[in-house]
Structures are given as C-alpha cells and as structure tokens.
C-alpha cells in the first residue's frame, strides 16, 4: 500500500483532512511529528495547511528549521514526491525547495472560497494524472497566498512548464495567476488551494482527488526513494 | 564582551506591492491629513546582542537578517546597532 507521510508542525491544522483524503483514495497516511529528524518509510510526503509555529515572523519562517526539514531536503533531493499545501507551500518556499514567496493577498482580505484552477502542466507528481487545461474546483483558505517571485524566476518557471496550476479568476493577486508550481524535476510541488477539501461531492467538489490520486500514483512509482527514506542517512 | 542594542527594520522591497501601506495612505484624507505619500508598513524587531565589538555584532545580525528575520525575495532589512551603556 502506498504510504504517505503527513508532516505536523505545532499549529498545523489540516493534517487529518489530508490523511483522511489519502486513505479514502486507497493510500495509507501516517502523521509525522516535526521534531523527528528522520522520515518513516514512506512513498510521498505532504506538508499540510495550517499555521506552523503560529506563522510567527512569517509563514514558514520557523518551520523551515524544524528537525524534520533536513530529512525532507534529502528526500526531495533524491526525487521523493513532496507536496506542500497552503501553509505547506509557504514552508517549501521558505526552505528554498521552491522559488518565490507568498505575500499578503492583494486587497488584504483573508479568502475562504471555492476557486477554479486550471492544470497548465502535467509534468509534476501532483498533476500527472490530470488533463492539460482541465479546470478543477478546489477551495482556498488563506491570507498570505499572493505568489510572487523575481521576473527572471517567473520567466524560468513559465518557460520550463513549472507553473502547474493557475487560477481561472485570480483571487489573491498572485503573479501570472499562479496557484501552484513545481521544482525542475517535478517531484516537489506547492499549491495554495486545498485538494483535501475537495475530496468528496459532500464537500462541494471531488476535483481535488484528481491531484491527490496523481500523487499516489507517483508515490507508488518511487521505490528508490522509499529505500532512501528508510536509511539512517536520510 | 560588550552588549549592543539592535533594531532591525523589515520592510517590503521597493517594487513589491504593499497593500497595508496603500490602505493606510488611502485612509489619510478621512483624517483631514494631506500631503503624505509613500507610506510603507513593515516590522521592527529589537533585541540585545553580546559581541566583541559593533562590527562583530553587525556580522551576526546581517547574517540573521538574510537567513531568518527577512525573506530576501520580498523584504529588505535595515539594521541599527547602538552600544548598550546600561550593561
């Protein structure tokens, strides 16, 4: 069974939603406390949403120094699938695993709303099972989700097809409508929308399952990283 | 070792939209205050540091600014260091 580690920082609050959505899709989610300096034997990692360390200083600024982050860096470098959702995306940018930063929403409003996001690249662990151009209904819930990066970085992201998801109707002022990006290898993905909150019709949309199913498929194919994650050096 | 008082000002880099600053600026006419432009809202972080001298203190603080106190993608810092004479 595909095992997915869900990292929990003090202040994380979406870990059970993510675990439940993963389990419902046939995966096996396991919560991983941030104080651990090694990862359990897992096929993928999710950094869920919330307010790690209360977002003190900046979202993700303190979480990036948590003991688990060293193991996560090694795991990502070895090609292991890593997805950061919302606050998890903020942690990944602060940790330097993804470029850019997430600043306060244009208009200074906390936004909790259903959004439509378009799949603009399928070359990532989170979008490989989606159709290019497919529009998904997935909600956002954030105050600091306004993606920004230097012009040169954005050009690279666009040229390399690393803007994997864009808002159809940009709610937060993100540059180029960016909702989600990936690293050059496509195994590290960050997005502001919450796929786990769109994992059942009862929640208003099952579209997030397209993304989470992609992750499970990618995770199932990552046997090499499973061994790496289990070794003491990881 | 000497003790120095440190003030780190964290502000959004020039060119990065500052919605808090803009909102404050737009509210000024309601207070009948005119002629104020360029409002920027940031953070002030204060602490004391023990170091051999001001230069040594500055090296530590500047490194801290880059790695922790600011996100260099969107923020700039300004460091002010003064000798703490009460120590």
Provide structural commentary.
The complex is a heterodimer of chains A (234) and B (87). Chain A is α/β, with parallel strands linked by helices and 234 residues long. Chain A has a single domain (3-230), classed as 3-Layer(aba) Sandwich (Rossmann fold). Chain A is 25% helix and 24% strand. Chain A contains 6 helices and 11 strands. Chain A has helices at 15-24, 68-77, 87-94, 151-159, 208-220, 223-230, and strands at 3-8, 28-33, 44-47, 82-85, 101-103, 111-119, 135-142, 146-148, 163-167, 178-182, 188-191. In chain A, the strands form 2 sheets. A 9-stranded mixed beta sheet of chain A has the order 2-1-3-4-11-10-9-6-7, with helices on both faces. Chain A has a two-stranded antiparallel ribbon with strand order 5-8. In chain A, helix 2 (68-77) links the parallel strand 3 and strand 4. The longest helix of chain A is centred in the last third of the chain and has 13 residues, at 208-220. The radius of gyration of chain A is 16 Å and the shape is globular. Chain B has 87 residues and is an alpha+beta fold. Chain B has a single domain (2-83), classed as Phosphoribosylformylglycinamidine synthase subunit PurS (Mth169, Chain: A), CATH 3.30.1280.10. Chain B has helices at 19-27, 54-69, and strands at residues 2-12, 43-51, 75-83. In chain B, strands 2-1-3 form a 3-stranded antiparallel beta sheet, with helices on one face. The radius of gyration of chain B is 17 Å and the shape is elongated. The model of chain B has no long low-confidence stretch (mean pLDDT 93). Chains A and B meet through loops of A and helix 1 of B.
